[in-house]
Amino acid sequence: AEHPEVDSISLDGNLIFDKNNPGSYAIEDNTYSIDVGNIEKNLTLRFNFTTSIDKKSFENGFEIIPSVNWNASWQDENTVNISFKDNLALAENYRMELGTNVKSSDGLTLKNKYLISGIVLGDYSRYLSFYANSFTELSIDAALSNGGTPVPVTNVTSGLDDDGNFINISYTDPSDPEDLEATILLTMKFLSDNYIPFIKKDSLQDAVNFSFVAGTNPGTFSKTGNINGYEWISGNECILKVGETGKDNIYHLHISGDSSGVLDNHDNYMKDDIDYYFKLKIQ
Q1: Is the pLDDT of residue 28 over 80?
Q2: CA–CA separation, 148 vs 244, rounded Å?
Q3: How far apart, in whole angstroms, are the C-alpha atoms of residue 38 and residue 55?
Q4: Which of 26, 171, 175, 249 is 20 to 30 Å from the Cα of 71, by its Cα?
């Protein structure tokens, strides 16, 4: 009997190795090296062997580095599909190895080793980005009220001075600025390289936090800021409404990145958290 070999390997349904056309793959020390370039985070692999395979030996012989839990589902004695229980990490390099300890049903070991490498940068496996690279690039609007009565706003600007980021709300009403309560409207928009993302609304609400840091004006300490809701403009853009804010207070806006943060419908996420601290000026 002959030692078993891999007849073909498919990645997401596309052939990446064909035993009948071995010249297109580098082989050294009985190891086929197959670099597949950009891969998707939820990829599937299919190995088709020249003969029936001992399933236990396959489980011991297949490995992915960095380690991820995987499932093997056998189509028949010669064909196995590999899928991963969790998505692979974005922008990470992975190596999938099939070792020579894999055996046929007759107990003969695999003739060659197979090494598949790729980076998670497929068309639907890219980091989300936030439209503003700094606080001053945020699109900001605001409204004022005095005891529930609206006070007309003449101008809303944001900027950076020696004390840090600020939002400045101007008005002409005779009210004392300490008596005024501001509602801040912050535009949030998320982008992707290859498509317009559709944000999972629950994930955004879980990822956003708004908090009171400090105040310099005792009359407005109680205005600690409160998220009043989100107005969705499109699948990737909404306006965050923050009420109960007051003059000269410093606030912190936090948006979580990584896989536990804002997600789109492809389960893509931002690489890093976003943190903005700013002072609210009303004059």
Answers
A1: yes
A2: 11
A3: 29
A4: 26
**Residue of 121, 89, 113 whose CA lies nearest to 4:** 113
- Regarding whether 116 and 57 lie in a shared domain, the answer is yes
225 and 106 share one domain: no
Distances from the Cα of 43 to the Cα of 39, 86, 98, 132, angstroms: 7, 10, 16, 31
User: Quick check: is 1 in a domain?
Assistant: no
**What DSSP designation does 3 have?**
P
Task: Verify that 74 and 136 share a domain, yes or no.
Answer: no
Residues 100 and 161 in one domain: no
CA distance linking residue 266 with residue 88, whole number of Å: 13
Give the tens place of pLDDT for each residue, 172-203: 999 999 999 999 999 999 999 999 999 999 99
- With residue 10 as reference, give the H or E element that holds it: strand 6-11
**Rounded to an integer, what distance in angstroms lies between the CA atom of residue 177 and that of residue 94?**
57
Query: What is the C-alpha separation between 207 and 217, in angstroms, rounded?
Result: 30
Q: What is the pLDDT of residues 87-133, one digit of tens each?
A: 999 999 999 999 999 999 999 999 999 999 999 999 999 999 999 99
| Distance (Å, whole) CA 79 – CA 93 | 26
